[in-house]
Amino acid sequence: MKYTFPRRPREEWNSGIMEGWEKKKVECWNNGMETKRKNVNRGFKRLNVWKDSVLLYILACKIFAKFPFELKKISANSIDAAHSISRNISEGYCRRGLKEYLNHLNIALGSCGEFHSCYESCN
Question: Residue 104's closest CA among 53, 37, 40, 38?
Fold first, then answer.
């Protein structure tokens, strides 16, 4: 069953008559259920490897931001590779299975190799 809201003249929108209408619409949609997330998994923030990868990303941003315009593609690729490390660690940690977690750790390891390669090509 499709519910249609009654059409009101535009003058009533700002006159205060419609203020309670939106609250009723939200209550009807929500059905009084609590909207907070109960399971917020942020345990990866305790991992030392994740903390180190975030520090590597910050350091890469500071170093590669000073590069000249001709090397912007290499510097952007290096920054993305450094950021990918922490993102893959956190995404793998939030997965349900150990196999998926290990797969994301392998991807993060590949991003480490990519970052190292970019760093070496700049030296």
Answer: 53
